[in-house]
Design a protein that fits this description.
It is an enzyme of class 3 (hydrolase). The chain has a single domain, classed as 3-Layer(aba) Sandwich (Rossmann fold). By secondary structure, the protein is an alpha/beta fold. It is globular, with a radius of gyration of 21 Å. The longest helix is centred in the C-terminal third of the chain and has 24 residues. It has 16 helices and 16 strands.
């Protein structure tokens, strides 16, 4: 028989299946519409009767992109599920119940413009079967969540995640979870959010551990730089660049058209900082900003001052991150030397020196660019986060190579997700990211590592430090001393 749990707003009812009890689509904050659309997250209203597990689900306004030859639905979901109340979370727990179980809270990726808690690869029942209380939430994205509009609180998407973590602190004990043993984890944009919140004074005390998958704290912008995006979008939407102007454009096609336009590689917008660097390398225009109460300092600067030292961190990357973007589209094989330089020059002032450091001339321009950007965008900034974090930090590398695209996709961005979640069934298909028959034994081992870390912080390889640079390669199951990358010369 399914359980019922009484929360301050009302009763929620679980649904049992395969040893897991699931409480779905619980509002953790009020619907962000009307006057609340660009406001701080507010307490969810009460509901009459029982909030059932099959209540309507919704997510943040978004428009998903097609990746040629790849079924991306398991990774990012089916797109926009319309509905006013989308600040929702799910809780999965062992069907047998328990008390003071470890808690894992997942923040989904998607470049801060797409994705949701409901993407099949990350549903989380596998963690509940292994004795964890698993939570996943939606948050505001794009214009509503990560655009520093004058007159609007900054970093609303991060504030939503903080609000969800506050909900976990206050209510997870009713589901059998231990609010003093919370591990927050995420991938890509979700990992970026977590890395930022490790340093945020507003998130202090809300989690004990953090797992940062293909993310780091190096992708934030100063507010004045991000305001250039406000101006650009206001012109596209023909509104004033302020709270009233953007509030006049309701979520829908016009807003999503504008987001899509500024997200194109050909969009004319300069988001470089004072050093001539664009820290996001054009992958997303919408990212957190620093210089407010959420992130008073750039995260790496905050780490140097000891922020987040009480948090145990597991951080890592995939060996060939950029292949997701450059191989699946065919761009890697089409680029010549000039185009590779032009692509990189938009974000990196020493673009030609970077390409030379990554072997252009000895390898094709596209392969040199892919290797360079994998390190510049993901791998080296993750190591820099590990270097500056004053607490215990472990670093991993996921290097299993997918056979997709005639073996060229490799250990691309997002590849670790079905292994972490032990959800290979969602990608084990001809157009899945892993291709057919990915190794279940590897998923068993990686999933168990994540569970063990959440349970008590344990990992079977040494912590990272600047001298020994211990990195654990997950597929090979070996720990190596990793030398500094060529990217080290080109990033702060």
């Amino acid at each position: 028989m399914a359980s019922q749990i009484t929360l301050p707003q009302g009763i929620v009812e679980g649904r049992r299946q395969d040893g897991v009890e699931s409480f779905l689509n619980i509002p953790y904050a009020a619907p962000p519409v009307g006057e609340r659309r660009f406001a701080l997250p507010q307490a969810a209203p009460s509901w009459p009767g029982i909030h059932e597990p099959d209540a309507p689900r919704a997510n943040a306004p978004q428009r998903t992109r097609v990746i040629p030859g790849l079924d991306a639905v398991p990774l990012i979901g089916r797109g926009w599920e319309r509905g006013d109340s989308y600040l929702l979370l799910d809780v999965h727990r062992p069907a047998g119940g328990g008390d003071k179980l470890p808690v894992m809270v997942f923040v989904h990726g998607g470049g801060f413009v797409v994705g949701s808690k409901d993407a099949p690869v990350q549903r989380g029942e596998s963690f509940a079967r292994d004795g964890v209380v698993y939570v996943a939430m939606n948050y505001r994205m794009g214009i509503d969540g990560f655009l520093p509009i004058p007159g609007v609180p900054t970093n609303l998407g991060l504030r939503d995640v903080i609000a969800a973590l506050g909900w976990v602190r206050d209510h997870i004990a009713a589901f059998g979870g231990d609010p003093a043993n919370v591990t927050v984890f995420g991938e890509s944009a979700g990992a970026m959010a977590i890395a930022d919140l490790v340093t945020s004074p507003l998130a202090a005390g809300l989690f004990r551990r953090a797992i940062i998958q293909s993310g780091h704290g190096g992708m934030t912008r100063p507010i004045p730089v991000a305001r250039r995006l406000v101006t650009k979008l206001a012109k596209l939407l023909r509104v004033t660049p302020d709270a009233a102007g953007f509030a006049s454009v309701l979520p829908g096609d016009a807003m999503l058209d504008a987001v899509e336009t500024v997200s194109q590689p050909t969009a004319r917008i300069d988001l470089r900082d004072a050093d001539g660097r664009e820290p996001v390398f054009g992958i997303s225009r919408f990212v957190p900003v620093h210089g407010d109460d959420v992130l008073p300092l750039p995260p790496l600067d905050a780490l140097k001052q000891g922020a987040g030292a009480e948090i145990d961190v597991l951080i890592g990357s995939n060996a060939e991150e950029m292949n997701l973007y450059l191989v699946s589209t065919g761009v890697r094989e089409k680029l010549n030397r000039l185009l590779a330089w032009l692509v990189l020059r938009k974000s990196q002032p020493r673009a030609w020196a970077v390409l030379k450091a990554y072997g252009i001339g000895k390898t094709t321009a596209g392969r040199a660019l892919a290797a360079a950007m994998s390190d510049l965008v993901f791998r080296w900034p993750a190591r820099r986060f590990a270097e500056e974090h004053r607490g215990r930090t472990h670093v991993y590398e996921f290097e299993w190579r997918s056979p997709r695209y005639e073996g060229e996709l490799g250990a691309a961005h997002g590849m670790e997700l079905p292994f972490v979640f032990d959800s290979l069934a969602t990608t084990d298909q001809p157009e899945g990211i892993t291709g057919e028959a990915p190794p279940q034994a590897l998923a068993d081992r990686i999933h168990a590592l994540w569970v063990g870390f959440a349970r008590d912080g344990s990992l079977p390889w040494p912590a990272f430090d600047r001298e020994t640079r211990q990195v654990h390669r997950l597929a090979a199951d070996e720990t190596v001393r990793e030398p500094a990358m060529p990217a080290a010369a080109f990033l702060p």
